[in-house]
Design brief:
heterodimer, A: alpha+beta, PmbA/TldD fold, 7-stranded mixed beta sheet, 6-stranded mixed beta sheet, globular, B: 418 residues, alpha+beta, 2 domains, 6-stranded antiparallel beta sheet, 21 strands
Chain lengths: 429, 418
């Protein structure tokens, strides 16, 4: 019988400043334990936020492990570890009044005649995590996360909104001039967006900015290589390891050790985080694995993550496509006619069919290799097995943070990309 | 508890303690095999205080003086105004608690999961790739210094299955307040849809009549429309629905009602202690009322509508309960010469402020002369207010999906990109 025990403690503070008023201040301190047992190839799981001893918790999980199955679990290489991310400026050392003052200053930078609504959200969170299992693995970490979301609504002929955010595994030091730059950008984009035209429709050349490119690679390929989909028989790339799935310039990695929003030192199965090659030189190298999928499919674990006390499942961390060598102007020239799309409110994919959708916040028409008039938000779609064949990559990799949802669990991730040229279906009028 | 109440009485002008105890059990399916049984016992507390007319709020997995102190500290820096809390009132609502759910054991879970798998396999050679059956019992207790002391127990059950065959996939699910789940329907329908979606072909990009299934209607409206009729969003300039009495959509009536018997979102009191009631949001396309939590009802000088609900963060905010869609034209045969869409991909990326959406269709079929042809990769595009002006007819297949109660709906002239 295999068992493991997770102890998770979180502390968080959220402050909203909406149309000049501080509200929705939420302050949480929670803890709980989660237990897994693997017996006769069948999993039993128990979690609780109430007091429970480790023995009792394991017993309850074992009580649920009452079937017979084929599940297995692998051992791990690094059996113990401890990691404490000590931020340069601990958010706990900054008074709430000071945080509110910063938010008010950011809001001031957002104000203008055409702005009808503003919202600034400050988020801080500490996650303390202990793990041990019946193989003797024992790890501990403590990681802070911090961020700010800047959003505004503007009105002219139409009502439009735009938002930017910064979210990092770090301390208060990351909220510097950048939050004011975000506010300026939100204002400037909205000034154009309220007069922007409807986007075009149909399959066309699309130049994506790094933020949209990141969401693109997350939806287009990231989910399909999560090995639990492979075990379910619901991934279009299940039999494509070692095969060419993209053109030769394409390299895609998942790297939880980068200090971006998807950072973690150990995953929720106690496995030390490491960088994984997904695609190298256009060839599919490996899937992302949990300790179970790696035992079943002969891979390397390290991507099992959970929201709070939930059952850990295979997830991405910081997923990115490496930069190429084209300049932005060269990408536009290559595109010749099409659209340049910027920013994203996210996307969704079905790994079984390979069809994915992702959304851009705004963009511009590209005409004869040059940027023309501004267009409103629009979504795009494509298919995993087709879309990386003709991709062209620009210079300058950047990451954008977000929360990724799967099986009802949200985890922090980031997606990275350089500007890139793809062919996709644009869902405009 | 007494010590905590004494502390709050001494340090706050008004206070509220909200406690949610949740017990759940579930079983999971992977590639046609039963893989895992989970159970959990969770308890969480939220303390809301009012000090000098300002709200403070804090949450924790256990109730202590500490969480109260944190809430009071927040009230010193916040500007969230509130003078009082609801006195607390309950409604009688049938069918929101089923004692049988408390007694569900692993044998029941095994039988249910097997029924899902078998119903799918009876249809054909499909892979019941992933699925689950989950049951939960929630116990809510709400107390405040304005007189509320309310308790209720709610049950919720759900079965979900995604079937895959080659590069085709489809899902179905059933949700209920009782232990009666239609497992045969979930298994059969997900398998049928996956099989039917094989050999999908592209259609020409153009304008088509489309029929959205209840799942697709819910996915689209819950993101693109519902937030626009929250009083708070209207007050804060984030909604185009600024004028009560104005026509914004076609002749559709949209009603929010948290007191519908057996409603998936029904309750005897909302998470702030307001009794659920019927609110007509749109009457034949004319905006009649907003829905709201308690605080924004006071702020806008309107009656509370019983829509103060708490999500995972336990902070009470406006949320729809059961949203019922009604239309005069109803027919059992609405699919001819239209693209029928079972589900949408990416509905959460719809623009809640402008109402614009562009979404990928999943399991879409072009129906012509009674023949259903699977459609490969199509996106529908538009603005939700324009779309709702072009409703042609409602189907008869009414069901509740999360918080939407609707049949399939046929819309005229929707832009489809292919």
């Amino acid at each position: 019988m295999f068992y493991d025990i997770r102890y998770v403690k979180t502390k968080s503070l959220t402050i909203s400043l909406e149309n000049g008023r501080v509200e929705k201040v939420k302050c949480d301190e929670s803890s709980g334990k989660a237990f897994r047992v693997l017996k006769n190839g069948f999993w039993g799981f128990y979690s609780t936020s109430a007091e429970v001893s480790d023995d009792e918790g394991v017993r309850k999980a074992e009580g649920n492990a009452r079937g017979k199955g084929r599940s297995k679990i692998c051992e791990v290489e690094v059996r113990s570890g401890r990691f404490v991310l000590k931020p340069k400026i601990d958010p706990a050392d900054i008074s709430i009044e000071e945080k509110v003052r910063l938010m008010r200053d950011v809001e001031k930078a957002l104000k203008d005649d055409f702005i009808v609504s503003t919202k600034i959200v400050y988020i801080e969170n500490f996650r303390e995590f202990s793990y041990r299992d019946s193989f003797g693995v024992e790890v501990y970490y403590r990681v802070p996360r911090i961020g700010m979301i800047v959003q505004a609504v503007a009105k002219d002929e139409t009502l439009q909104f735009y938002s930017r955010r910064i979210l990092k595994p770090a301390g208060y030091e990351v909220l510097g001039d950048n939050v004011f730059e975000m506010a300026e950008e939100v204002k400037n984009v909205l000034r154009g967006l309220i007069k922007a035209k409807s986007p075009p429709s149909g399959e066309m050349n699309v130049v994506v900015d790094p933020s949209l490119g990141g969401v693109f690679i997350h939806e287009a390929f990231g989910h399909a290589v999560e090995a639990d989909h492979v075990l379910q028989g619901s991934s279009v790339v299940a039999d494509k390891i070692g095969e060419k799935v993209a053109n030769e310039s394409v390299n895609v990695y998942d790297d939880p050790t980068l200090r971006e929003f998807g950072f973690y030192p150990f995953d929720d199965e106690g496995v030390k985080a490491e960088k994984k090659a997904i695609i190298e030189n256009g060839v599919l190298k490996s899937f992302l694995h949990s300790r179970e999928t790696s035992a079943m499919l002969n891979g390397k674990p390290g991507n099992a993550r959970a929201q709070g006390l939930d059952f850990p499942i295979v997830r991405m961390s910081n997923t990115f496509i490496e930069e190429g060598d084209l300049s932005f102007e060269e990408l536009l020239e290559e595109a010749k006619n099409g659209v340049y799309l910027i920013g994203s409110r996210g996307g969704e994919t079905n790994p079984a069919t390979g069809y994915f959708q992702f959304n851009a916040q705004f963009g511009y028409i590209v005409r004869n290799g040059e940027l023309a008039e501004m267009i409103r938000d629009v979504s795009l779609s494509g298919n995993t097995l087709e879309v990386l064949k003709d991709i062209k990559l620009g210079k300058g990799l950047e990451f954008d943070p977000g929360f990724c949802g799967k099986s009802g669990q949200l985890v922090p991730v980031s997606d990275g990309s350089p500007p890139a040229l793809i062919k996709a279906l644009v869902g405009g009028a | 508890m007494n010590e905590i109440i004494r502390y709050l009485d001494r340090n706050a002008d008004a206070w509220e303690i909200y406690c949610e105890r949740s017990k759940s059990k579930s079983i999971s399916i992977e590639k046609g095999e039963i893989k895992l049984i989970e159970s959990s016992d969770d308890v969480s507390y939220a303390v809301r205080v009012i000090v000098n007319g300002i709200v403070g709020f804090a949450t924790s997995s256990n109730l202590s003086i500490d969480v109260c102190e944190r809430a009071i500290k927040i009230a010193k820096i916040s500007e969230e105004k509130l003078e009082e809390l609801p006195e607390g009132k309950k409604a009688d609502v049938e069918g929101i608690y089923d004692a049988r759910v408390e007694k569900i054991d692993s044998d029941w879970l095994f039988e249910s999961a097997e029924a899902l798998i078998n119903s799918a396999r009876e249809v054909g050679n499909v892979n019941p790739a992933q699925g689950y059956v989950e049951v939960s019992v929630d116990e809510i207790r709400l107390m405040n210094s304005c007189g509320a002391d309310l308790e209720e127990k709610l049950t919720f059950c759900e079965a979900f299955l995604e079937c895959v065959i080659k590069d085709s996939s489809a899902f179905e699910f059933d949700q209920s307040r009782t232990s009666k789940l239609d497992l045969e329907f979930v298994g059969r329908r997900s398998a049928e849809l996956a099989l039917e979606s094989l050999k999908a072909e592209k259609v020409e990009g153009s304008r088509y009549d489309i029929v959205l299934s209840p799942i697709a209607v819910h996915e689209l409206l819950s993101y693109a429309l519902y937030p626009a009729f929250f009083a708070e969003n209207v007050a804060k300039g984030r909604s185009p629905l600024k004028e009560l009495g104005k026509r914004y959509i076609g002749e559709i009536t949209i009603i929010d009602n948290g007191a519908i018997p057996y409603g998936l979102m029904s309750f005897t009191f909302d998470d702030e202690g307001i009794n659920p009631k019927e609110t007509i949001v749109f009457e034949r396309g004319v905006l009649k009322s907003y829905i709201t939590d308690f605080r924004h009802a006071l702020e806008m000088g309107i009656e509370p509508t019983g829509n103060g609900l708490r999500g995972e963060d336990l902070y009470p905010a406006t949320s729809p309960t059961n949203v019922v869609l009604e239309f005069d034209e109803v027919s059992g045969d609405i699919e001819e010469d239209a693209i029928v869409v079972h589900a949408l991909i990416g509905a959460h990326t719809s623009n809640p402020v402008s109402g614009d959406f562009s979404l990928e269709c999943m399991n879409a079929f072009f129906v012509k002369n009674g023949d259903r042809k699977a459609v490969k990769s199509a996106m529908i595009y538009g603005n939700v207010y324009e779309l709702l002006k072009n409703v042609e007819v409602f189907g008869r297949d009414v069901r509740q999906i999360e918080n939407t109660i609707t049949p399939s709906v046929r819309f005229k002239d929707v832009v489809v990109s292919c």
